[in-house]
Amino acid sequence: xxxxxANLLLIHNARLVDxxxxxxxxxxxxxxxxxEGQPTKEALKELLADESVAKFDARGCTVMPSFIDMHxxxxxxxxxxxxxIESGCHAAAAGGFGTLVLMPNTKPVVSSMALAExxxxxxxxxxLAQVIxxxxxxxxxxxxxxxHLADIDAKLVPLITEDGHEVEDSSVMFRAMQEAARKKLIVxxxxxxxxxxxxxxxxxxxxxxxxxxxKGKPSAAQKxxxxxxxxxxxxxxxxxxxxxxxxxxxxxxxxxCRLHLCHVSTARSMEAVRQAxxxxxxxxxxxxxxxxxxxxxxxxxxxxxxxxxxxxEADRLAVVQALIDGTADVIATDHAPHTTEDKLAGSPGFSGxxxxxxxxxxxxVLGEGMSMSMLSSLMSAxxxxxxxxxxxGLLQPGFLADITIVDTETCWTVRGEEFxxxxxxxxxxxxxxxxxIAATFFRGNIVFQR
Length: 450
Fold this sequence. Notes:
This protein is α/β, with parallel strands linked by helices. The protein has two domains: 8-63 and 404-449, Urease, subunit C, domain 1; 66-197 and 246-398, TIM Barrel (Alpha-Beta Barrel). Helices cover 38% and strands 21% of the residues.
């Protein structure tokens, strides 16, 4: 079926799950690039007997709306040795994602509609997933000029962000938020006070040098010293996140814009989100699979370099609780692929598209008792709603046939070398996870099958 759209495609022998549905024995009929609906028992018999209808036996697996990622890095243009649009889209399909918002920290920085539309076009040409290329808050990340925001078409680019950076000047950020409110753009913030982050960098650098000693086999004393340095750096970076979070919430409240906080990882920042929501602010936030599943205050995950860092167990439990009680709105990957050389040199972040569902399912559904419908809302319906994508995120008639089939009975061992992404580094290397992507359909075409 790859490369063509069957007029009618019946996915049968399936469990159907979305934010509002959990049917243990069901079927889904696709017509071209759209969902036709869930056939009745009588209609299902007729469809199964009709040889003109293409069929896909889900073999008891779970059919869900494809996932929507509000935060991914495809490194294109400028850093395509790490990832490009094509490899990123293949990784997305392998991870069950049908729509992704790409960050603008490329080379050149995406600060124009022309550059954004070029990346959108590249993805359309691949036909594996849809990307929505975001645009920087300040032109070229220069921190001052926001004149380019006037040219943004909010229907094509619903979100602006300085991801990987913080807009240092509060007056510039406030003016950008006012413009975003006028144009109905989401302002997505990488909350990290730049001065506290700068103070943490030399500590991280020294720690990484110690860990690289003796050809990557540091002595016990060197490893202990590195752990202490990283602990000190992470304390500064915790302050950096909380400080910037409080500032951005205050500015957004005054500007009246829609605020989205990226990769919230501390209990204090999440509590600030909870209070802002209680006060009626237009605010949303995301949690990454790695922050909800990994505890980073001690070895081995203390040594995993990512921004924001992996946090304490208390912080991890706080973000998990926020996902359960609705304070946190979405799970977003912050997929940040790097070359092996760049990771060895300390580049923060790692690939996450192909482990996102399994990591979230293992931690939240198996570990915390979250329903599959709630997980679907966090990975599909909620991000679709936030982005204004009214044609996806649910298994409803007329919605796009972006479908992911997951095998919740299969457990597997993570091997980065098997990723479709160019970035093969993962902190989950060798870890056993449950929940596997069996197949992904994009606009009715099967684009990945295990």
